[in-house]
Each structure stands twice: as structure tokens, then as C-alpha cells.
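Practice problem. Given the sequence and the SMILES for S-adenosylmethionine, write out the predicted structure.
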Amino acid sequence: MKKEKAPRNRTLTVSPGERAELKKRIFYPGKDGFSLARIINKTICGDVFAIMDLLPSQFADLLIIDPPYNLDKNFHGFKFSKSSDSIYSAYLAGWFPKILHVLKPDGSVYMCGDWKSTFCLYQIMRDFTVIRNRIIWQREKGRGARANWKNTTEDIWFGTKSANYYFNAGAVKQKRRVLAPYRENGKPKDWVETAEGRFRLTCAGNFWDDISVPYWSMPENTDHPAQKPEKLIAKLILASCPENGIVLDPFLGSGTTSVVAKKLGRKYIGIEINEDYCCWAEKRLALSDTDRSIQGYSNGVFWERNTSNLQIKEKK
Ligand SMILES: C[S@@+](CC[C@H](N)C(=O)[O-])C[C@H]1O[C@@H](n2cnc3c(N)ncnc32)[C@H](O)[C@@H]1O
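Answer key:
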């Protein structure tokens, strides 16, 4: 018997009637090809490995790549199997160098992984991009292990196509609570007093502990088994894609990259092999016509975890 959804459960659902409508928005590869005009702001339903060579070259400002990790995972029928490092590296080598032709000469790439995949990711990023950094983000959710440490972090490797690249550090500032409120001549030094406490705006580092993984009471939540948080993707897009620029995600999943790009005034193209996920992405894109909010990001700053909805008014 199908379980009833709890009243506060906001996980996205798609009815059969909606599905038929949403499918009309999806781009299905056909004989007319992949000109930029045809695929811009679209979800392409298909196998990225069959499509990547046919895409236009040098149009994307940013590539956000969240491939299957080197784990056993069932993406609602599409099963990915854990293998050795060398087999996983060969899998990456089969497509990563090829997909880079879509990037502009000053474009950037982010590639996601867990601790086990990360060494293979590092090698391929080092070999084919100018590797710039590794972001580690803390995920609170995770199953405890009896004979091991619980996995509570993931990695995102950052690389660029050349030495000349776009990066806007000012767009990804973080609002942090001040623990030691230092004053100079009686006035707060680099922090502000608000009704909710004392805060400081800081530049984002490469360890992110302010991210909440989507869960059932969040409107962005879907049943995708590896969905990324909108707040996380928002940081990548704001830092590395100019307004009106184009973001491509070749493993789109539930649509997070496209949805966040749209909310932030960027253009997007997503590729996903699973038609159900493409429908979820399209429904999220449609919902973002009326709700552009990103949990944890407001007034141009990223808030600490679980302070996202505070309307913090600064004291005069
Ligand atoms: C880690 S998930 C991405 C999750 C996504 N970032 C999100 O927020 O929902 C990887 C996705 O890649 C898709 N995928 C795997 N192989 C693919 C292929 N060859 N072509 C297109 N999509 C593929 C899977 O169906 C899965 O949805």
C-alpha cells in the first residue's frame, strides 16, 4: 500500500497529468541537432556520452559536474556500480576531456565527489584543467557506521580552462555570528549589531559548514537519491558565472543546477538520462517562475546553517 505523505512533507511530486505537460518542455535529441538557440534553457533528456561531441563549442561560462560517485547507487533504474579506482578513473577519462570543448576559454569547472572518488577526480582535473582548489562541504545527513567514521563531508574540485577566468568573491560572502566582538574606539570592528545578534560578513573559504542537505520539509526536496542543495550550487554559480552567462550540467539529476541558474539570472542547459528526473527538473523550473528563493541565501549573503529565514534587521 502506498504510504500517505505527512502534511508537512514538501517533497516534489509529479502527477501523470503533469508529467504529460512537463514532457512537452523537455528537449529530446533528434535529427535537427543541438544549436545553442535550440538547447538554451532546456533540459536535454539523453545519454551525455552520446550527446557531448554534438554540442556547440566554447559557449559555457561554467560546467557543474556531479557524476555518479564510485559507489553502488540506483538512480531509479539506472544502476551505477562501485569499481576499483583504476576502472573509475577510466570511466572519467572516457568523457571528462571531451566535454570540456563546451567551455569558453575563460570558463570554470566544478566536479563533485566523495572521499573515495576524490583522488580520481583530482587526477583528471589536474590533467585537463588549471586546478585551483578543493572545496570540502559538510553534510550533516549520513548513516552512522559501526566500524568506521561516519561520512560527513564531500569534495568539489575547482578548475579553470586557462589562467584568465571569472571569479566574483564579493558575490559569495557569508554572514557569520561574531564570537569575540572586538571594538575600536568603542565602535564595532568589522561587525554589526542586529536584533538577532552580532554578525560579520566574511569571504567564503574552501570549507563550507553552512549547507543543509535537502530533507522532506524543504520545498526543494525531491526523491532523487543524490540531490545537491540549492544553496551549495548557488555559491558555485555566483562565484564563477557572470549574470546572463551560461551554466551546463551534464548530469542534471533533479535539476538543481538549472533551477538555481534560473533563480540567479543565468542561462542553463542540463543533460539527464532519466526521463522522470527530467520531469522533476522541469516542474522545479516552472515553480521557480513564482518562487525565486534559495534557502540560506538572501539579501545577497549566505547565512549560517539554520538561520536562513531570519529577517535580520540591522540596528541604527
Ligand atoms: C549524482 S546525480 C546528480 C544529482 C544532481 N546534482 C541533483 O542535484 O539532483 C548523477 C545523475 O547523473 C545521471 N546520469 C548518469 N549517467 C548519465 C549519462 N550517461 N547521461 C546523462 N545522465 C546520466 C543519473 O541519472 C543521475 O541523476
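Check your answer against the key. The longest strand covers residues 103-113.
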